[in-house]
Structure formats: C-alpha cells, structure tokens
Design a protein that fits this description.
By secondary structure, the protein is mainly alpha-helical. The chain is built from six helices and no strands.
Length: about 110
C-alpha cells in the first residue's frame, strides 16, 4: 500500500499536491491491470518489461511499501525473456486494485 504519512511529510502536509499526484496516477494507470493481464496472456515480454519498469517508478514515487520487490522481480524476468509466474502477476494486480481503492478513498475524504 501507499505510505500516505511519508508522502504528507515529504510535501509538508500539502494535501493539494497529494491530490494532484494521486489523480495523475489514476489517470495514467487506472487500466494497468488489464494491460498487464493482456501482455502476460499473449506472452509479450518486452511490453511487460516496459509496463513493470514504468510501474516500479510510479509506485516508488508514491512510497508504495508492499509489492515493489515483486514488481522488480517480474521486471527482471521479462527483461531476461523469462515468463513470470501467474501467481506473481495475480499478486501484483490484486495489490494494484487495493492501491487504487486506497487512493480513491483518500481523494474522497
């Protein structure tokens, strides 16, 4: 999940910056789970690598604390033309749904 406390501290409690950051994340990544599943199902490893590389950067910027190591491992698998385990893909998409809900809840607060 996203560590909102650290983000608030980084931005000196400026909730407007956080709102903009979260809105941008949702705008650019709201359908990412579908993209990941499609790329995985169709064995598009170069595309999967780019998706996970981008996702790693985006979630690092949001101070995500739970799935970054798994994202990095999948990124490395895809880069090395090795198909990641379905369980790993499922874990990431499940966590992405939780992160999306966490962000939406913050924005609706």
């Amino acid at each position: 999940m996203v560590n909102i406390s650290i983000l608030e501290e980084m931005f000196d409690g400026d909730k407007e910056i956080l709102r903009q950051l979260f809105e941008l994340y949702l705008e650019e990544h709201s359908t990412l789970s579908d993209t990941i599943n499609d790329q995985y199902k169709n064995n598009k490893l170069p595309e999967l690598f780019r998706t996970f590389h981008t996702l790693y950067g985006a979630l690092s910027n949001l101070c995500e604390e739970d799935i970054l190591p798994l994202i990095k491992a999948i990124e490395t698998n895809a880069k090395n033309h090795e198909t990641p385990a379905q369980q790993s893909i499922d874990s990431v998409t499940t966590e992405l749904a939780k992160i999306k809900q966490q962000i939406i809840a913050y924005l609706n607060d």
